[in-house]
# Entry
Amino acid sequence: MKKITLLLFCFLSFPYLGVAQDTCAAATAITAGSYNINTIDGTEGTTVICSGGTTTGVAAEWYTYTPTASGSATVTSNILPENVNGDTRLHIYEGTCGALVCVTGSDDVDYTGGNYLSEVTFNTTANTTYYIVWDNRWSSFGFQFDLTEAASVCIEPTNFVGNGSSSSTFDVIWTDINTGSTTWEIEWGTDGFAQGTGTTVSNIATANYQFTGLTPNTLYDFYIRANCDGSNGDSNWVGPVGFRSARDCTASVTYPYSQNFADGTILDCWLIENADATSPVWSYNTEVNDLDGDGTNDSFMAVFPQATTEVTKNDWLFSKKMDMTTANNYAIDVLYNAFDLNTTSNESFELYITDSQSSTATYQSLLGTYTSITQSGVFGDNTGNDLITQAYTATETFNPPSNGTYYVAIRATTTASPNLFMVFNLAVTETPNLSVEEFSVDNFKHFTNYDTNTLTLKASSNMSGFKLFNSLGQQVLHSKLSTNVHEVNLNNFDTGIYFAKVNIENSTKTFKILIK
# Structure
């Protein structure tokens, strides 16, 4: 069974070559049958959306349907092969022109399967007028649609929307247009479970449910049906409907940290803030654009204008939590670029450290400001001159004022731009802070013999410990000491810069050495 595939009965008849009227007030009255729309060009569009989403239709075709007996009606453009490759959107209203109320609606029968036609079934009341409206949200091309009648039915729930999640819970709401004392029944389990083997929950009294006891970052499915009172019985099962529990974001990142956004689930622990409350905003782009021409689409974060007009960007992207200490320095690298979407790019951004995922965080340290960013490289080039290989790198360092939890924040600040600002990677490395308390010169000495590759440590009192870190902040050696002289064999380490820490009594000495 495909996910969210509703199988509804279609009445077969010869099409009536009628012409719908162009406004609500002049809608064409129809009865059960088949109808052809030549083109959607009505002068009154849709302002009340019943099919999901918020975008209105500029033009629409209007019909009225007034059943003489109570029952159910099905309106569908899901007629093949007549409407193959069609893309329709349907709204069903009650009420009067200027005060229309949604009954139901449909955009795509099977979006993931590529069927963009529309189909709804709804129960009707005798002598009540229903408005059947097709708009041009996706296409103005003509098509055929059917209106069929049947006895009242228990109608499947629709329009499932995730309404909040955590690492152990997921909330879902849905739409149900049945009348009477409807309840719902759900069966759920991990992704791909066989119906009949899952966990069943019955007598759900409201059109929402919270799944609990979930494993973090795990895929689940559920099936659902309506339990209608009276003779209508139960609806068909709908499903499987898939969802995912959120990641557990309580832990800090580990260093060295690098995030290239290949796995979009990491954004559970990030936060996007639209500070100016207008489009555009940060968005996750994946499986759409092959920026480097290697045949695989690339994942990245972008502030993507939805129009060709110039707009101001004031949008924040906050990283996952990062525990930092005053004993260390933190190097922050951001890989970024611009793209000439509509004009020549001239992007800008600011790089911050904050103590919360908010533009009003109590602590905000502005690390750097970057302006006049132009596109570097060519979209889709596969010779090394692509947008990723030629991207810019912002490099800043941060010394925490106190031990605690911090976040890297990227604030897009372009004042007027119809172009893209993109971020491909965030990297943070931790290295020992050279500014920690040092001994007096007389108390401690060290020197490196490059002939033997030996580091010698000498102190006036016994040393208690020695640690060696590479340039990424990774500890590569830890020795417990109880003497005032100690030699370290450096032959087992790669060449490069290292940081050494020596403990004597209650003090610490940190210094840098070069291994050749």
